């Protein structure tokens, strides 16, 4: 629909009025019914494994392996959870949860901090051998993690860290993926002019990093921190090797000894898996909005 407005005997060129369906500038389009149906089906498919874990954890071992399997929760959930809490890892699930929390938190903080510093150096600083060093860092991504198990095990034994939580933290204080991720983000999100302005104002390197680099890198830090925490929490291969026989296992090591005996008790195993998953769901519930908000803030430019 067009309108013309006469001014001084003349009329302006026809200007189309914006449609009522068109959103505001920078706004979002409304999803249609098909999008809601697809998203609903995707959400149900994603939640079904968690629901089945709840069903299996609330039944007994015979019901889990029956055909057809039960689709409704049973009445043994709290009984199985109590057994897991008292017997997982020898000292109970509480110790394992505390150990996993300490390890995952330490690894996340160190990885995010060092990745930001190294990523900033590779993205914005000039020094000799920068491309060669970056290439060496990226080349480690092509090395399978299984190849480093034997030398890391020997190193931790020589350092006296066998069956110690420090052996789970020291090898992953920083990762090549984290350095590359932060380098790519800061290369585009951190303007060189902003650094030069901070230098002109008399800011030293520490103030530039604290007041300029860290605030700009906050969205990427949130994403990298979540990915690192989940990966450290779910890590099984290295903990089961270096913490074998330890009385301070992580969650994954403690779950490895559940349900063993003359016959495998799958209901107890799934109850332990459910208990080990709840902290991750709690972390997503508490910090998911901040992570999504940080990503949105970093993606929208004025």
Kindly describe this structure.
By secondary structure, the protein is mostly helical. The protein has helices at 33-57, 61-64, 77-87, 93-124, 130-139, 149-158, 166-169, 176-189, 192-200, 205-216, 218-234, 237-242, 251-256, 266-299, and strands spanning 2-3, 6-7, 10-11, 15-16. The strands form two sheets. Strands 1-4 form a two-stranded antiparallel ribbon. A two-stranded antiparallel sheet has the order 2-3. A hairpin with a 2-residue loop joins strand 2 and strand 3 (10-11).
Beta strand count: 4
- Please mark out the parts with pLDDT under 50 across 5 or more consecutive residues, or reply none: 7-12, 19-23, 298-302
Based on helices, strands and strand pairing, what is the structural class? mainly alpha
Oligomer: single chain
Order of secondary-structure elements = EEEEHHHHHHHHHHHHHH
Q: Determine the fraction of residues in helical runs and give it as a percent range.
A: 55-70%
* C-alpha-based Rg, rounded: 27 Å
Distance between the termini: 31 Å
Residue fraction in strands: under 5%
Strand order of the largest sheet: 1-4
- Main sheet makeup: 2 strands, antiparallel
Number of helices: 14
């Amino acid at each position: 629909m067009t309108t013309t407005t006469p001014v001084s005997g003349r009329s302006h060129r026809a200007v189309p009025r914006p449609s009522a369906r068109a959103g505001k500038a920078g706004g979002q389009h409304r999803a249609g019914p098909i999008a809601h149906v697809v998203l609903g089906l995707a959400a149900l498919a994603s939640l079904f494994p968690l629901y089945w874990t709840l069903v299996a954890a609330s039944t007994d071992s015979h019901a889990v392996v029956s055909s057809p399997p039960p689709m409704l929760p049973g009445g043994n959930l709290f009984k199985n959870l109590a057994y897991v809490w008292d017997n997982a890892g020898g000292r109970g699930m509480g110790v394992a949860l505390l150990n996993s929390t300490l390890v995952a938190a330490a690894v996340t903080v160190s990885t995010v901090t060092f990745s930001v510093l190294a990523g900033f150096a590779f993205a914005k600083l000039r020094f000799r051998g920068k491309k060669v060093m970056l290439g060496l860092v990226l080349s480690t991504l092509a090395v399978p993690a299984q190849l480093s198990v034997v030398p890391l095990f020997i190193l931790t034994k020589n350092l006296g860290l066998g069956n110690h939580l420090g052996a789970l933290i020291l090898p992953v204080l920083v990762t090549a993926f984290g350095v590359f991720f932060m380098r790519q983000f800061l290369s585009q999100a951190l303007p060189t002019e902003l650094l030069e302005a901070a230098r002109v104002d008399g800011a030293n390197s520490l103030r530039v990093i604290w007041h300029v680099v860290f605030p700009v890198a906050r969205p990427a830090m949130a994403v990298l921190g979540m990915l690192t925490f989940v990966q450290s929490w779910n890590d099984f291969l290295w903990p089961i090797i270096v913490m074998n026989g330890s009385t301070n296992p992580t969650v994954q090591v403690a779950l490895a000894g559940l349900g063993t005996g003359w016959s495998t008790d799958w209901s107890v195993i799934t109850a332990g898996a459910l208990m080990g998953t709840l902290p991750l769901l709690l972390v997503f519930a508490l910090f998911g909005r901040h992570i999504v908000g940080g990503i949105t803030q970093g993606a929208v430019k004025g």
